[in-house]
Write a structure and sequence with these properties.
homodimer, alpha+beta
């Protein structure tokens, strides 16, 4: 459910030199030289294990777990468990959630600190007809940025997760001890909005293990095609749902599809749905009009505005527009204002409409039923618990109380402080690696970080990783394996990024 | 595209006795006795040919011509041509229309008068998964009303057309001369709104032949389950079209589907479509709000209101509601007013909505495109030529000029005078056959009768036939072959109804 990383251009500020000097505290010299030696051995092991890692990724891509279709649930749990065990996790087991199970494991390195790792082992649906090669094949191909792998999950999220596992394999193969202990929690229904993932916190062993963690990351391909990275200090929440209008519930219109000529005598549940939708937004769908929707919306802070202004300076508007196929932003806003809107505004998006006859040409029916698939993004301090009843009340008050609101998934926004260890460790890795980066207040996309940043854990949590990929939720999803651009990490460099991150988390 | 025949209940007035006496003019006695003898021989031939007729119908059902999918076009033309030739038509040939060809033929009986016969050889789409038996099998099964045939086209329109052909076979087999000459014009794209059928009138031979016709019928199963029949004095016109909103045409929103998180920054063509739809109607979709839409709408005449009042008295509201699965009419109108609305109001119906992700569950995309499939029924004196530009202008004036209006088919309303030969002949057949019937001003459904009732022909034209079937455009379409209710005609009695109609047309 994570969004594409916005790309940045060459003007991105190089923060490397100044920052890395500042990070070297007194006495850090000896630790640094030992770490450098360890790092060299681990890198050699990453290289030696590369073919195995790619094979592992391709095998994983070949086994899609799709929560919406309940596809390969048991198989996905078993595969995830095997991957975790092979990478060194112990006590690996499925955790019941009430939905699709999570997978849990720990890696006790005898270290002082512990880091939490969030994985998702499910993927988004796909239509093979839209792909250049079979989406489950994991075909290796030549991309303008280098050798790449194409397949469902290549970047969202099996590719970066495989790079993380490759790092763990390399620690073991090189005989190096991990600098931190790990707790792994892998979800199987992220792509339907994590409806049950919070329930993992009811498992005493899971909760106790997660309480020991300093912070949590989800491995992610964080680099734009030009190599720049964006660190987000949180993500929007989401409610994913279907609005279903039917003659049966409404008590008007037909109980089943009837001949369209009867429209002159019989009400239409599909028109009823269109009228209901129309009340949810103003301004061509751009501003939610659900009563009380903005009650708890926290405006951007001065710091957040400054970060966005910085991002607007360093990211290429033209490149982003080209990559999205977009000519104008909402209200013809200038770039910076459009990014403020992106970071700060709740949305009511129509993912899909399905009613009546959907095949080629027409069919003269008056449909008994219509469905609108919506996703509503929430910003701080909105919550699902507050927003969903507001939507229902709004529909009731406007005469649409009969329309079913079927929430399939969703969760609250997540925020992590700029000065938290997870964010500082990310900056340190990018700085040491000479990776241009910028901070952004909030991803407009969503991931279930609230499970870690909210009650009961209240830990810092974020997306992190070197590497580049694209096509999440879209055809021809890919990840760069062997980069032809020295500024963009390939698979092996991405694995080393996780190695470096774990070292940073041990000391920061 | 014809609608289900509204059912009638037992209170339908028996007009038989009085009317049949009035129809017998002086000197009609001798002709009548000769006709009775002929009729007996023809009936014997219909009975003898029954198995062949059913086989012929099943073979036809097995070959679906579907214009929307361009399925079996050549095959359909050839099959229709063979059916016509075998039934006695000569000079049978395909007539180019610019779309799917029509089939034309004449049957010169050396008679004084000529009758035009309209066939459609195409059928509506179907989804085999929704059917109790394969829709192309033509399975014979036990229906509460008797032995029946189930298959696509069973009642719309291959079943009644086969009964008409059975009548012609029986004339020949019994050595009886047809009382009228026939001109056959069979269409192959009725189910997509007859976009090219009017072009058959550009063919000089077709036009000359049709000019000789006294009137035109389309064979139809005109009886409700209780045996009563409704004679309609016309039918609404129709415009079938797709409204297509896209980022590409709009210049706003994405050119292809993008991640839904970007809704905060990027416009949505699907919301644009919803807003456009909302402007087309008021009152929950029940009243067209397209500017100027009612300009040429002719209110019901006093005679039309009287006919509707009569229909309201004789048809069972409860039975119709039950058969449609409807609890309330629009605006909670009483039965008579709802029938007035049915006969007199133009409609804007949504046949289907298709946008973005339409599969199970959700998919977090911001779709680049949305499609609404509409059918707009036209009443006298609206015309397609006047209405379609009004729709386009309306969209432009409301800021939706970018939305494509793709008309796929349609035609003007059709009207035939109550005192025309075609209507009087129908009444005479029903009266002689003791069939309860009522007159109704207009079918709310549509058929391309305007080709015959409009310029250049200006002939009376209508739907006619004994027999019962249901499920047009729906699963499990059927026609009763051997009726267990003496008030409902089976296939053989339907064939005899056409025999009687041709005799009436010869003298009326």
């Amino acid at each position: 459910m994570t969004a594409e990383t916005p790309s940045a251009d060459r003007r991105t500020i190089l923060k490397a030199a100044a920052a890395s000097a500042a990070l070297l505290a007194p006495g850090a010299g000896l630790a640094q030289s030992r770490r450098d030696a360890d790092r060299e051995a681990i890198r050699a092991a990453v290289d030696a294990g590369y073919e195995d890692s790619v094979r592992r990724l391709r095998e994983w891509i070949a086994l899609p777990t799709i929560a919406a279709e309940r596809l390969n649930i048991d198989e996905g749990v078993q595969h995830m468990s095997r991957l975790a065990t092979e990478a060194g996790f112990t006590g690996v087991r499925a955790v019941p959630t009430g939905g699709i199970p999570a997978v849990f494991g720990v890696l006790d390195a005898g270290a002082r600190r512990t880091v939490g790792i969030y994985f998702m082992y499910d993927v988004k649906q796909y239509d093979p007809a839209e792909w250049a090669s079979p989406p489950l094949e994991g075909r290796i191909f030549d991309h303008p940025l280098g050798r790449a792998i194409r397949g469902r999950g290549a970047t969202n999220q099996k590719g970066p997760e495989s790079a993380f596992l490759a790092a763990l394999h390399a620690f073991r193969a090189s005989g190096r001890r991990l600098p931190v202990n790990l707790v792994l929690l892998a979800e199987g229904e992220e792509e339907i909005g994590s409806p049950n993932f919070i329930n993992t916190m009811r498992d005493p062993e899971v909760l106790a293990a997660m309480r020991r963690a300093e912070g949590v990351i989800i491995p992610s391909n964080g680099q734009a095609p030009n190599g720049s990275a964006s660190i987000t200090l949180g993500a929007k929440g989401i409610i994913e749902l279907e609005l279903v209008a039917s003659g049966e519930r409404w008590g008007r219109g037909p109980a089943r599809d009837i001949h369209s000529s009867l429209k002159a005598q019989v009400d239409s549940p599909v028109w009823h749905l269109v009228e209901a939708l129309k009340t949810l937004t103003t301004d061509h769908g751009n501003t939610p009009a659900i009563e009380g929707w903005f009650e708890h919306v926290r405006p951007l802070t001065a710091r957040e505005r400054a970060l966005i202004a910085e991002a607007a300076r360093t990211r290429s508007e033209e490149e982003v527009k080209r990559s999205l196929g977009v000519q104008r932003w909402i209200d013809d806003l200038p770039w910076r204002e459009s990014l403020e809107r992106l970071a700060s505004q709740p949305t009511v998006n129509i993912e899909g409409l399905v009613a009546g006859y959907t095949g080629p040409g027409g069919k003269t029916i008056l449909p008994a039923r219509g469905v609108a698939k919506l996703d509503l993004r929430l910003v701080p301090n909105m919550t699902v618990a507050d927003a969903l009843p507001k939507l229902r009340r709004h529909l009731e008050r406007h005469g649409f109380g009969d329309i079913e609101v079927n929430m399939s998934g969703g969760y609250d926004p997540t925020e992590t402080a700029e000065d938290s260890n997870v964010i500082r460790a990310q900056q340190a890795v990018y700085t040491r690696g000479n990776v241009e980066f910028s901070l952004f207040p909030r991803s407009a996309g969503s991931w279930p970080g609230f499970v870690f940043t909210g009650e009961p854990l209240r830990k810092p949590a974020g997306q992190f990783g070197l590497g580049h990929g694209s096509g999440a939720h879209a055809p021809d999803e890919y990840m760069i394996l062997e980069s032809s651009n020295p500024r963009v990490a390939g698979f092996r460099e991405a694995a080393m990024g996780y190695v470096d991150f774990l070292y940073e988390m041990a000391t920061i």
